[in-house]
Amino acid sequence: MAPAAAVILAAGKGTRFKSDLPKVLHRVGGRSLLHHVLASIEPAGFDQVVVVIGHRADDARAELDAIGADVDVAVQSKQLGTGHAAEVALSALRDDIERVVVLPGDSPLLLPPTLDALLADPADVVMLMAEVDDPTGYGRVVREGNTVARIVEHKDATHDELAIREVNAGIYRFPVDGLATVLASIGSDNIQGERYLTDAIAGFLDRGASVTAITAPAEQAAGVNDRAQLAAAGVILRQRILQRHLLEGVTIVDPATTWIEADVTIDADATILPNTHLEGATAIRAGATIGPNCRLVDTTVGEDATVVWTVTNRAEIGPRATVGPFTHLRPGTRLAAGTKAGGFVEMKNAEVGEGSKVPHLSYIGDATIGRDVNVGAGTITCNYDGFDKHQTIIGDGAFIGSDTMLVAPVEIGSGAVTGAASAIAEDVPADALAVERSEQRNVEGWAARRRDLRGEKAPDKQGEGTD
C-alpha cells in the first residue's frame, strides 16, 4: 500500500480540564492520553508518525522521551485550530508519504481494527464517525445520501443540525496530494475564530474527491475533553485490560475491585484477589497469588510467591517468597527465593538472601542480608545518622535477636547471634554472640511507694478479689 503517516494533534491546552497541564498528558489507566493513542496506532505500522505539540511543548517532549516513542515532532507555537495544526505537521512529513491519517491526541479508546478499516477504504478521503445517543459537544456529520457533505461544529450548528446523532470522531485519512492547498484555504469564520480541520472535507469535495465515513463504535470515537470524560474512559480501559488478562489465563477473583494498568504483565495461572491495584511496569509470574488489599507499583513478583495486604514500589519479590500482611517494600528492596517479609515489616534498599526471614515488626533499610538468616521481631537497622545513610551487612546463617538495634555502618558475621534488646554498634565476628544491654536491677517496694504518693489503692492480689 502507499506509504502512510499518522499525524497526532497534541498541541492544545484543554481548557475544560481546568489545568495548566496539556490535555494529552493527563493520565488514565497508567498512561497519558498521548501514550494510549501512540499504542493504538502502533499495530498499523505507519511509515512515519508526527506529533504536533504546542502548549508546554517541553513537557510533551519529555513524555515522548519517557515513552521512547519513535516519532517526529512539529511545534504549533500558536494554537489557531486543528486545521492549522495539521498544516504545521506537513512540514515534518517525508517526501515519500502519500497518505496521512490525522487523529487527536485525546482519543485513548481507539482500537487497531478500526484504524485498519480507515486505511483500507478505497475512497480518496475517509473519516471516522459514530452514532451516539447524546451528541452534545460533538461536530455533526451532514450527509447527502452516502456521501459526506460537510461537518458542522456543535457551536456553529443550526437547530436541525443539532438533532443529527452521527458525530465526528476527529479522525481522518487524507491524500497528501492537494492537502496543503486545502488546509491553506481553511478560514476562521466561526464562533471560535479557529481554523477547523473539519472544513478540509468541504475543500476536498470542491476538488472532486470522494469522501466517505466509516462508523465506529461510539466508545472508540469518544474524545476526552474534561475530567469526567477522563474518568469514563478509564472505566472502559480498565474493563478491556481485565478482560485481556482473564482470557490469557489469569484468575481475577473480583474484577470489580481489581485495578490493573496498561503496562502490567501477568503470566497465566497467577491469581489476583480482591481490592488489588497493579500499577506501572509490575510483572506477576505464574503461580503467584496477589491480594487481597495490595498495591504494587513497578514491582516484579516471582513464581509461586504470595503477597497479601502489602504496598510495594520498585521492589523485586523472588519465587516462593511470602510478603505481608501490612508490609511496605520501598524502592530497591530485593527478596530472593523462599524469603519472608512478614507482618508490619518495612524495607528500603534492602537485599534479602535466599531462605532468610524477617517475620514481623521490623525496619530493614540500606541492608544486605545473606542466606538463611532469621531476623527477630522489632529489629531495626539504624541506617541514618542525621546526615548520611549507612549500610548494615548480615552474613549467612546469622540469628538476630528480637528488638535488636543494628547501628550502621555495622557488619554481623556469618553464623553470629545477637542477644535480644541489644544495640549493636560494632562489627560482630562470625559465630560470635553479641550482647549489649545493662544488668537488670530490681528495686524492692518502689511501685508501692509510688502508689502511696499518688493516693492509689494497691491492686487485688491474684486469688484475693472481692465478691
Overall description:
The protein is an alpha/beta fold and 467 residues long. The protein folds into 2 domains: 4-225, Spore Coat Polysaccharide Biosynthesis Protein SpsA, Chain A (Alpha-Beta Complex), CATH 3.90.550; 228-434, UDP N-Acetylglucosamine Acyltransferase, domain 1 (3 Solenoid). 19% of the residues lie in helices and 30% in strands. The chain contains 10 helices and 39 strands. The strands form 7 sheets. Strands 13, 14, 16, 17, 19, 20, 22, 23, 25, 26, 28, 30, 33 and 36 form a 14-stranded parallel beta sheet that branches. A 7-stranded mixed beta sheet has the order 5-4-1-6-10-7-11, sandwiched between helices. A 7-stranded parallel beta sheet has the order 12-15-18-21-24-27-29, with helices on one face. Helix 6 (179-185) packs across helix 7 (199-206). The protein is elongated, with a radius of gyration of 32 Å. The mean pLDDT is 94.
